[in-house]
């Protein structure tokens, strides 16, 4: 996903009252600290994604919110109420899982009606709400089928209908599209986003898929080793990562270690100098220089750039809408570039020479230390 695509995803959420509040959440399993003091607010009507690699603590955090795990320290508040010690059945939370979790012996309609039965909703009202939920997820007329008679996408829609049929205060989605093929997964992502906006329900989404998070989210909380290391809108996370970990984890990037010199440039280990943006870093410091693959462009003639290097194409990868090139630059370092196919065409082949340029503002600096 390139920056132009990221700009069109998500929506800036206005400042508002937090519907879900996590304060100082700590969870330990013996000597292992899975959550190391999580503070997080999810705004009313917002879809916030918890994003991180395996072992970062995101699933544990979701279990604490759902009530499947009790925190060792901290508080969970939903709306105006404290739910830290409440059982899952008393939290008024809808959940959608990767494996659907539908009862195989019950019809789709009965599955959707189940949370209404648990809440003692009258039969006629149950039937009305189930019909509305089926229509909401485009399953009208299919309520009499068993889960095994439905496709994976239909089962996921049914699970979503069951999660929202009782009007929960909060919707939790635990990697719900992981079992679907790519095309269906992309379709379901957009359907869930539209449904969440239509209902206005506050949602907490957990995934390890960076592209999925960029597509779906109002805001993203990136987790690393039990901590939230950056929280922001998708555009901010992609364009301005706060740490070296986030820069490497979100999307694809060219990331170089440089030492800042007196002239405001960064020197690579081989001595190559790269002009840096602004004067935010003092001379002598080591920082990471991040350059997204869509930023370098072919230069020539009168076109100017703050940084220009020539090199040789050593790899090409056709990606449909885009083409990715790996270029070995003459100063002795590599850069990966990705251009729209209509611009790149098939003009560049392995062995071709190319001049690349970018501006100072195309570069973003991050602390080099992984613990920063």
Low-confidence blocks of residues: 1-15
Gyration radius over CA: 24 Å
Principal-axis shape equals elongated
Largest sheet strand order: 6-7-8-3-9-10
Question: Please, how many helices?
Answer: 10
> Which H/E pattern describes the elements?
HEEEHEEEHHHEHEHEEHHEEEEEEEEHEE
Give the termini separation.
26 Å
Helix content: 25-40%
Biggest sheet record: 6 strands, mixed
Please, what is the average pLDDT? 89
Structural class: alpha+beta
Give me the count of strands: 20
| Beta strand % | 25-35%
Describe this protein's structure.
The protein is an alpha+beta fold and 372 residues long. The chain contains ten helices and 20 strands. It has helices spanning 3-7, 58-66, 108-118, 123-136, 152-164, 182-199, 210-216, 234-239, 244-249, 341-344, and strands at 18-29, 32-43, 47-51, 73-78, 81-82, 93-97, 170-174, 202-207, 219-224, 227-232, 254-260, 265-267, 273-275, 286-291, 297-298, 307-318, 322-329, 334-340, 353-358, 364-367. Strands 6-7-8-3-9-10 form a six-stranded mixed sheet, sandwiched between helices. A five-stranded antiparallel sheet has the order 13-12-11-14-20. A five-stranded antiparallel sheet has the order 15-19-16-17-18. It is elongated. The two termini are 26 Å apart.
């Amino acid at each position: 996903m390139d920056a132009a695509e990221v700009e069109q995803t998500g929506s800036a959420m206005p400042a508002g009252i937090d519907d879900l509040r996590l304060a100082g959440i700590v969870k330990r399993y013996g000597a292992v600290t899975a959550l190391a003091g999580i503070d997080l607010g999810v705004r009313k009507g917002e879809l916030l994604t918890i994003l991180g690699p395996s072992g970062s603590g995101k699933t544990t955090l979701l279990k604490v919110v759902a009530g499947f795990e009790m925190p060792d320290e901290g508080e969970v508040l939903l709306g105006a109420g404290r739910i830290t010690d409440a059982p899952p059945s008393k939290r008024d939370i809808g959940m959608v899982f990767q494996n659907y979790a539908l009862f195989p012996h019950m019809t789709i309609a009965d599955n959707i009606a189940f949370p209404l039965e648990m809440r003692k909703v009258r039969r006629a009202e149950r039937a009305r709400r189930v019909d509305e939920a089926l229509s909401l997820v485009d399953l009208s007329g299919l309520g009499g089928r068993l889960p095994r008679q439905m496709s994976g996408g239909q089962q996921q829609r049914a699970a979503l209908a069951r999660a929202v049929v009782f009007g929960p205060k909060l919707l939790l989605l635990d990697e719900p599209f992981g079992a679907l093929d790519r095309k269906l997964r992309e379709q379901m992502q957009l359907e869930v986003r539209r449904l969440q906006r239509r209902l206005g329900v506050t949602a907490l989404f957990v995934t390890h898929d960076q592209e999925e998070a960029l597509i779906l989210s109002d805001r993203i909380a990136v987790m690393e080793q039990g901590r939230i290391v950056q929280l922001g809108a998708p555009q901010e996370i992609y364009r301005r990562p706060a740490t070296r970990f986030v820069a490497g984890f979100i999307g694809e990037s060219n990331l170089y270690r440089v030492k800042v010199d007196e002239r405001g440039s960064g020197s690579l280990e081989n001595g190559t100098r790269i002009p840096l943006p602004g004067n935010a870093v003092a001379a002598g410091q080591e920082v990471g220089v991040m350059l997204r693959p869509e930023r370098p462009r072919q230069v020539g003639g009168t076109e100017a750039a703050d940084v220009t290097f020539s090199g040789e194409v050593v790899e090409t990868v056709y990606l449909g809408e885009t083409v990715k090139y790996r270029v070995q630059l003459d100063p002795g370092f590599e850069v990966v570039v990705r251009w729209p196919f209509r611009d790149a065409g098939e003009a560049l082949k392995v062995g071709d020479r190319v001049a690349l340029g970018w501006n100072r503002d195309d570069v973003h600096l991050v602390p080099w230390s992984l613990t920063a």
